[in-house]
Amino acid sequence: STSHADKKSYEINLSEKKSLVGMRTDDDWALIAMLGDNGFVHNKLAYELWNEISATNETPYDNTVNCEFVEVFYDNTYSGLYLLCEKIDRKQCKLTEGDYLYRLDELKSEDNTLPGYEKQFDFRIKWPKDYSAEDYKIINDFEYLFYSKDGFDLDKAYEVLNLDNIIDMNLYSMLICGVDNWDANCFYIAPKSDNYRISEVMWDMNETFGDNEWFDYTVEYETSPDMMIPYVKKIYDADTKKMSSYMYTRWKELRRNVIDKEEIKDKIKDMEEYLYNSGAITRESDKWLCYLKPEWRYDNIYGFIDNRIEYLDYFFESEQQIK
Question: Which member of 1, 112, 124, 303 lies 3.0 to 4.6 Å from 108 by CB, making a disulfide possible if both were Cys?
Answer without folding.
Answer: 112
